[in-house]
Write a structure and sequence with these properties.
The complex is a heterodimer of chains A (about 240) and B (about 500). With about 240 residues, chain A is α/β, with parallel strands linked by helices. Chain A has nine helices and ten strands. Chain A has a single domain, classed as 3-Layer(aba) Sandwich (Rossmann fold), CATH 3.40.50.300. In chain A, the strands form two sheets. In chain A, strands 6-7-8-3-9-10 form a six-stranded mixed β-sheet, with helices on both faces. Chain A has a four-stranded antiparallel β-sheet with strand order 2-1-4-5, covered by helices on one side. With about 500 residues, chain B is an alpha/beta fold. Chain B contains 18 helices and 14 strands. In chain B, strands 8, 9, 10, 11, 12 and 13 form a six-stranded mixed β-sheet that branches. Chain B has a five-stranded mixed β-sheet with strand order 5-1-6-14-7, sandwiched between helices. In chain B, strands 2-3-4 form a three-stranded antiparallel β-sheet. In chain B, a hairpin with a 2-residue loop joins strand 3 and strand 4. In chain B, helix 11 packs antiparallel against helix 16, helix 12 packs across helix 14 and helix 15 runs antiparallel to helix 16. Chain B starts with a helix and ends with a helix. The chains are: A alpha/beta (about 240), B alpha/beta (about 500). Chains A and B meet through helix 2, strand 6, helix 3 and helix 5 of A and helix 15 and helix 16 of B.
Chain lengths: ~240, ~500
């Protein structure tokens, strides 16, 4: 990995009982890069991502941020997570808070901004995704696509150095996938560093700088889309429906 | 830092409780007090006249207190608790028509006995029971803890035990039992007030009354005996007796049983008049209602605070593995409190935990019901926390928020809304559970009804009035909760 690597896991192992879900995975993402984690169901994509910000505790291996092992103390983790945004498959917007409060809660509570600053920023972000009129609405009043876009904005409000997307469009109705993908395209164009777990091979081929193909808890290939499409590995060809 | 935050909550909680203690424990002692306990359902020895307790025992102790320059406080409680109250130091003397027995002598000291009394048998006119020998196999009512109870239990059979004599007599009148064994003097009163009852000429057993004083207070016993001897010598004793009994030992001033048959409506009107209007008896209900509300409201608050803390500790332990010791303590608390009846807890807190401290009974009740309710509230809130989608916590943590912050800002508000119906139910249960306060002589709503019943010998209207009052409060409470639920629901879904 080069010097600009922001987030990296080395030799990651995750074991649930006797079952080894992740078996020595090493993945990294450099500044401004968009990396997709692809692979069949049960390959361990989401687990790798959840280990990256310690929603799952890794059984073995290292998680490095700017080349340094992450401080796993309570405080250390809170600081680290503030810089590593995460977008969930099921949005996980705070059901008891308005859209505006969903976005401002973390920056205000973590002392990053004053309430006024946070609200100004939140309204600006909402304006950008065309949902400023929903600022006072509650999550339940939004469509799935709107919820996911708000969830992305909520992560952005902490000014993270890298954004993790855990199957961001899998829980959406097909007609709502587009609006979320468009927002992700915009972020990529703005130079946001992104790591995306996805099933959507077409979207990955279009947006990714690099694709990491996982199977059975191991990295099968880690290469740019052009290399993937030229691959003669039958497993990869099947997965990407390449003829 | 969640640890610090919880400590802060704990501090607030403790301050809250300290406030209770000082607010309720502030009793200025200008003059030394003499606390007498009795069960004021025992005319002519002790009974309510208006809001004060009078009768031979009460007047006698009042005179003893006066002669020794003591301020007399009379507390009314269940008869089976008066001796325990003296033993534990909750009271100085028990004067409640207590019969001298060998068993009781082991527990407490008796003053000189001041009257010979009989345990007599009351039956309905024309009953097949004509003497003590006929009691075997019949349904016989007694007042719980009296010598009538003991004699029946030891020598004849298990009787039906009532909280007071009036209830036993009321059951006899309605045919629920066949006979009542009771002390002779109150029996005279009961028979005079209830048509169709007679006292059998042959009494069950003869005995003596005396007052009970703790074995650790010989100086108090000596004082009582000395003053009683003086009162006997100067004629005060007989004067007190003459206030309540005529020369033949028959009670004075007992209202005659109305002879003529009246219409139902007229009877209801009269009954209403006697039970609520006469002697301002409605005040028992109003004051009792206020006590019930005071205890319930404070206990609910206390239960919420305790329940909240316990639920958070338990959930934090389940989710993060922290607070092992605290969690263990919480677990013991839940097991003990949920595993024992609230009446037993109330009595333990009154007689054992606060046994040697002089605290207000309202405080005791608040603590007992607060601690009891806390255990149930804890599990209700914990279930609410568990029901919140785990993604909510993950989202909070992924943004760099601490466990505590996420809990407070995201999880608990949702959990609270989830459990509001269950919490409301718990509050309703609590409100009604406070009706056992009478066990420690607190005059709550139920006890207020009991006092009216003991004065008017009428079970129907006081009970209905008490039931209706609870019902109205519960209906109002349900409506309020429904409003709150709707208000919270408005925000989502």
């Amino acid at each position: 990995m080069n010097a600009d690597t922001i987030l990296e896991v080395r030799g990651l192992v995750k074991q649930f009982g006797d079952h080894r879900v992740i078996d020595g995975v090493s993945v990294g993402v450099t500044r401004g890069e968009v990396v997709f984690l692809l692979g069949p169901s049960g390959a361990g994509k989401s687990t790798v991502m959840r280990c990256m910000n310690f929603l799952e505790t890794p059984t073995g291996g290292e998680v490095l941020f700017h080349g340094q092992p992450v401080d796993r103390s309570e405080n250390g983790l809170n600081h680290y997570r503030a810089k590593v945004g995460m977008v969930f498959q099921h949005f996980n917007l705070f059901a008891n808070l308005t859209i505006l409060d969903n976005i401002t809660l973390a920056p205000v509570k973590s002392g990053l901004m004053t309430r006024t600053e946070a609200e100004t920023q939140a309204l600006h972000l909402l304006h950008r995704i065309g949902l400023h009129d929903k600022a006072r609405a509650y999550p339940s009043q939004l469509s799935g696509g709107q919820k996911q876009r708000v969830a992305i904005v909520r992560a952005l409000a902490m000014n993270p150095e890298v954004l993790l997307f855990d199957e961001p469009t899998s829980a959406l109705d097909p007609e709502m996938v587009g609006e979320v993908e468009n927002l992700m395209r915009e972020l990529a164009k703005d130079g946001m560093t992104m790591l995306v777990v996805s099933h959507d091979t077409d979207f990955a081929m279009e947006l990714a700088d690099r694709i990491v193909f996982l199977a059975d808890g191991k990295v099968v290939v880690d290469a740019p889309p052009s290399v993937i499409s030229a691959s003669d590995n039958s497993r990869i060809r099947d997965f990407f429906s390449l003829r | 830092m969640p640890g610090i935050v919880y400590k802060k909550w704990l501090a607030v909680m403790l301050a809250f409780m300290a406030l209770f203690f000082t607010a309720c424990g502030e009793k200025e002692a200008e003059r030394s007090k003499l606390i007498m306990v009795t069960n004021a359902t025992f005319p002519p020895y002790e009974f309510y006249q208006g809001s004060s307790i009078v009768g031979i025992d009460a007047d006698m102790v009042r005179e003893i207190a006066k002669r020794n320059d003591l301020e007399l406080v009379i507390e009314d409680m269940a008869f089976d608790s008066v001796i325990a109250a003296v033993q534990t130091g909750k009271a100085d003397v028990a004067a409640s028509g207590i019969t001298v027995t060998e068993d009781r002598k082991k527990q407490i000291d008796f003053t000189t006995s001041y009257v010979k009394a009989d345990q007599v048998i009351i039956v309905r006119e024309g009953s097949s029971i004509v003497g003590p020998a006929d009691l075997k196999g019949k349904r016989v009512g007694v007042q719980h803890g009296t010598t009538g109870d003991m004699y029946m239990t030891e020598n004849i059979q298990e009787p039906e035990r009532f909280q007071d004599g009036a209830l036993a007599v009321a059951s006899l009148v309605t045919g629920k039992i066949d006979a009542v064994v009771l002390d002779s003097a109150p029996s005279e009163e009961h028979v005079a007030r209830n048509k169709g009852l007679v006292i059998l000429p042959e009494s069950l057993v003869s005995e003596e009354y005396a007052m009970a004083i703790s074995k650790s207070r010989p100086e108090l016993l000596a004082m009582f005996n000395k003053t009683m001897a003086e009162m006997k010598a100067d004629g005060t004793m007989s004067a007190i007796w003459a206030r309540y009994l005529d020369a033949d030992g028959k009670p004075l001033a007992v209202p005659a049983v109305p002879e003529e048959e009246k219409g139902l409506w007229k009877r209801m009107q009269d009954s209403f008049q006697t039970n609520f209007v006469k002697d301002n008896r409605w005040k028992y209900l109003v004051n009792g209602f206020l006590v019930t509300i005071e205890i319930s409201a404070c206990a609910v608050l206390m239960g919420l605070c305790i329940g909240f803390l316990v639920a958070v500790v338990r959930s934090a332990h389940d989710q993060t593995g922290r607070y092992k010791v605290l969690n263990f303590l919480c677990h013991i608390y839940l097991t003990v409190v949920r595993g024992t009846p609230v009446v037993v807890q109330l009595l333990i807190i009154y007689f054992v935990i606060f046994g040697s401290v002089d605290v207000s009974k309202v405080l005791v009740a608040i603590v007992a019901f607060g601690v009891n309710s806390g255990a149930y509230v804890a599990e209700i809130i914990r279930s609410g926390i568990m029901a919140v989608d785990s993604g909510q916590m993950e989202a909070g943590r992924s943004l760099g928020l601490s466990y505590g912050t996420t809990m407070r800002s995201v999880i608990l508000p949702q959990a609270f809304k989830n459990v509001l119906p269950a919490l409301g139910n718990e509050f309703i249960v609590l409100l009604k559970e406070t009706s056992v306060c009478g066990y420690i002589a607190l005059q709550d709503l139920t006890k207020g009804g009991d006092i009216i019943r003991s004065q008017t010998y009428d079970a129907f209207l006081p009970l209905i009035a008490v039931a209706l009052t609870y019902l109205v409060v519960v209906v109002c409470l349900s409506q309020l909760l429904k409003k709150l639920e709707n208000y919270l629901k408005k925000n989502e879904r």
